[in-house]
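Exercise 7.
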Amino acid sequence: MIYAENLVKTFSKNEKKNKKRDINAVDGISLTVKSGEIVGILGPNGAGKTTLLRMLARLMKPTGGEVRIETGGKIIDSDLEIKRCIGYLSENTKLYRRLTTREHLSILGEVYGLTEKETEDKINEITEVLSMEDFIDNRIEKLSTGQTQRASIARCLIHSPLIYIFDEPTLGLDIISSSAIIEFMKNEKKKGKTVIYSTHYMEEAEYLCDRIIMINGGKIIKEGTPEELKKETGAGNMREVFYGLMAGKELLI
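Solution. The predicted structure, written as tokens, is:
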């Protein structure tokens, strides 16, 4: 389970005549995501989604507020424990291009303290889950965009995290790669894992998410289940919900 309370992240923006202006990329966001729940973070470009996800993953220190991670009734405090709990995927995740996906995962298994047998078993499991049999032993520099994204997600699985935080995991992917990633998230939910992810694909969010949090200007403007959001806005689908909520709203970032 992951909690965020009144999260704020302030950046200084350069103005004319060498003046700077402070801008809150995230401005007082509070949320709770439970075990076995998939929560989608939706909003236009510049709404603060990536900044929020980075703070939830404890990769970026908030200007104000706090993030807490709890498992088994225990608050996780140490950096090492937090890293073991979270699998984070960013839009610009970098992989060692001259390694194969198998070699990359083997190195990460050592980093996380897995035995050689545990690493081998985990790689075999991940290969099957993400349908990587055809390219697991190809160099990453030779992979397609969709294959590279699956390799990036595989990196997040090697240590069996309790929480997944994904930033645009299916952006620009073909249908086969997108489907593999979507099914992966659904199956992890069934195992009681926590999944938080951002997306621009409204149909995908409607199909996949238990709850959706809509943000703009660094603030939550609406949240609820897809059905609740459609009912409250009188929309027929999440695309209409998004357009309706964003119509006439100034982007503040």
